[in-house]
Amino acid sequence: MASRIAAGEVVERPASVVKELLENSIDAGATEITISVEKSGTSLIRISDNGEGMSPEELPLALERHATSKLRSDEDLFRISTLGFRGEALPSIASISRFEITSRQAGCESAYRVRVDGGSKTSAQITAASMGTTVELKALFYNVPARRKFLKSLTTEFSHICDIVNRLALAYPKIHFRLEHNGKTLVDFVAVRELRERVDQVLGREVAESLRPFEYRQGVLSVSGFLSSAPAAFPNSRHLLTFVNRRYVRDKILTHAVLHGYETLLMKGQYPAVVLLLDIPYDEVDVNVHPAKYEVRFRRQSDVHDAVARAVRQALRAEAQQPSGRSFAPWPQYSSAVMEVSLPYAISVSDSVESLVSETRREVFVLPNHSPQTRPGFFSSLNVLGQILGCYLVCSSGRGLALLDQHAAHERVAFERLRQQMRANAVERQTLLLHQIVELSAGESMMLEKKLDLLERYGFTLEPFGASAYAIIAVPALLPEGDYRLAVRQMVAELAEIDQSEKLGQHLGERLATIACHSVIRANRQLEMHEMRALLRDLDDTDFATQCPHGRPVLLEFSREELDRMFKRVS
Ligand SMILES: Nc1ncnc2c1ncn2[C@@H]1O[C@H](COP(=O)(O)OP(=O)(O)OP(=O)(O)O)[C@@H](O)[C@H]1O
Ligand SMILES: [Mg+2]
Questions:
Q1: Distance, C-alpha 239 to centroid of its chain
Q2: Which of 318, 325, 370, 474 lies most in the core, judged by the most C-beta atoms within 10 Å?
Q3: Mean pLDDT of 110-115
Q4: What's the confidence (pLDDT) of residue 514?
Q5: Exposure string for 305-322, b = 16+ CB within 10 A, e = fewer
Q6: Contact criterion met (CB below 8 Å) for 267 and 550
Q7: Any idea which ligand is nearest the CA of 89?
Q8: pLDDT exceeds 50 at position 353
Q9: Relative to the CA of 293, which ligand 1 atom is closest?
Q10: Structure pTM?
């Protein structure tokens, strides 16, 4: 009974069994693993590998609780390099299924088999099998009806199995993974040399094509992988995959760091596709904190956060500087709502991150054929044909047609400058000829009273005006002419929220700058040719110029192929 209770923690569903067995095969050095399941694993799961196998003496031991072969001393527990380390998985799985394991060790003439059924275990019996190990289990949860009841539909359970296979496949490109369901081969990831090829296999061509490689080192930490650059984005975080020492984990620090790297580049509710591999010394991370090992604990978590956020930011920055060569065809799932991305998790990141990043940004994205120093900026190289509808610039580019949203462009330029000025505590301001009056609730105006100095620092001069109203006297010079009341109101709301969380305060400048730049409505205006050219030059001098600070695209580019396709010219 006790073993069945423990099994519940490790084995929640068929996919958990697949995960444990695959991890064992990988730990055994297998290069080929076949997973066969029937009825989404509820009636059969069989996993065969060509790993090192077990001797007839080791085989029954593998089914004893806490009989792991992977840790030799107590200290090993503090530098775990294998996927398994507890000696829990096999006995747990065996206790809740009709189970058999067959193994033949390298150099051994014969294979041996042990069966477990209803808690009783046979002795190791000689049998014929090729080198490696096969674990087969039937009727999962046959003796744990409660578990069985909690299983979801067969389709859902199978999709969990696919997720497990996909993640391990991404972490181990050199292993050949095959997945069969009800006798049909559904996945056949042949061994490849490069992660890039595995990413193609697992995520599919379409997603994989929107990904760029990245690489970053910070002390003992190494961060690498593939990430999507704007405007590619997805409606959920399904493609945000993080690995620590090749173990797939769902870690809020890592996820937050990745999203922080994307801040101001994605629209609300959109997520990037990222395959991120963090390599960290084994003694810097505790993997023994979650029954299914999906969570880890970092010894220096803010270092890890920093490194990951920088890695992502640096790659995206380099990518946005040379946008040509990527497809800018509009992504279908753009939602119409334009709001700020807000992160659910707060952690400190030093402001100096950005400056450090800019110093090293050219190291990774080395673009073919162009030396970034001599080449004119991408935006200045566009040939301006004109402006339409008072808000779009129409240009020809080296690849075809380029359209720019002049408001989004202005917004990004103003945002980056305002952010810099804020950081340097030197926001230039303009005094308004006509003061604008904002009426606030009693609560809001009490709040604001305490924050007047802060807003002053960010370029907004406000003075009390009657009981609960304020007059806007001056605003940052970078903002366009207009109505600033909405901006002030939103900033007050933001400040009230930030008051609750000290840590969020660290990004305050950035948030206020976003609000300020966004909430002042930009009027449609006919631009002169020299103004359009100046705007393009400004974009070249601006980080992340391909997106406005809310993640809307600044630029859409249509290549000849795309235009031909749209005109149905392709045969
Ligand atoms: N496919 C396999 N090939 C070779 N040896 C295996 C295989 N699967 C299991 N073993 C052996 O059986 C032992 C028990 O496996 P089990 O998964 O229960 O524990 P573990 O992997 O050591 O730890 P954890 O419970 O964290 O997975 C392993 O330590 C290993 O020695
Ligand atoms: Mg194991």
A1: 7
A2: 318
A3: 95
A4: 81
A5: bbbbbbbbbbbbbbbbbb
A6: yes
A7: 1
A8: no
A9: 26
A10: 0.77
Which comes out higher in pLDDT, residue 148 or 52?
A: 52
- Band (pLDDT 50/70/90 cuts) for residue 387 is very high
Predicted confidence (pLDDT) per residue in 533-565, tens digit: 999 999 999 988 888 888 888 999 898 888 998
In this predicted model, what pLDDT tens digit does every residue of 121-141 receive, in sequence order?
888 899 999 999 999 999 999
Q: Give the strand pairing for 111-117 and 120-121.
A: antiparallel
The answer to whether the CB of 68 is under 6 A from ligand 1 is yes
Q: Give the Å distance between the CA of 462 and the centre of ligand 1.
A: 67
> What b/e sequence results for 16-55 when a residue is b if at least 16 CB atoms lie within 10 Å of its CB, and e otherwise?
bbbbbbbbbbbbbebebbbbbbeebbbebbbbbbbbbbbe
Is residue 359 over pLDDT 60? no
| Ligand 1 pocket test target in 3, 22, 24 with most atoms within 8 Å of CB | 24
- Please give the angle made by the CA atoms of 80, 28 and 297, to the nearest 5 degrees: 20
Q: How many CB atoms lie within 10 A of CB 497?
A: 12
Higher pLDDT, 360 or 158: 158
Contact status, residue 509 vs residue 419, Cβ threshold 8 Å: yes
Nearest to 166 by CA among 155, 177, 154: 177
CA of 115 to the centre of ligand 1 (A): 16
Q: What is the pLDDT of residue 331?
A: 37
Residue 193: Cβ-neighbour burial (10 angstroms; 0-12, 13-18, 19+): exposed
Encoded tokens for 273:
């596709």
CA distances (Å), origin 344, targets 74, 87, 152: 37, 36, 28
Dist CA 563 CA 570 (whole Å) = 10
Q: In this structure, which residue's CA is closest to atom 1 in ligand 1?
A: 25
Q: Would you say the CB of residue 25 lies under 6 angstroms from ligand 1?
A: yes
24 pocket-lining for ligand 1 (C-beta < 6 Å): yes
**Beta carbons of 265 and 545 less than 8 angstroms apart:** no
- Residue 55 near ligand 1, beta carbon < 6 Å: no
Q: Is the CB of 290 under 6 A from ligand 1?
A: no
Q: What is the pLDDT of residues 277-291, one digit of tens each?
A: 999 999 999 998 888
* CA distance linking residue 205 with residue 273, whole number of Å: 13
Length of the chain: 571
Site to substitute for ligand 1 among 31, 68, 80, most atoms within 8 A of C-beta: 68
- At 306-347, the pLDDT tens digits run 999 999 999 998 888 877 544 433 333 333 233 233 333 322
Q: Which ligand ends up closest to the CA of 11?
A: 1
Ligand nearest the Cα of residue 53 is 1
Q: Is 133 in the pocket of ligand 1 (CB under 6 A)?
A: yes
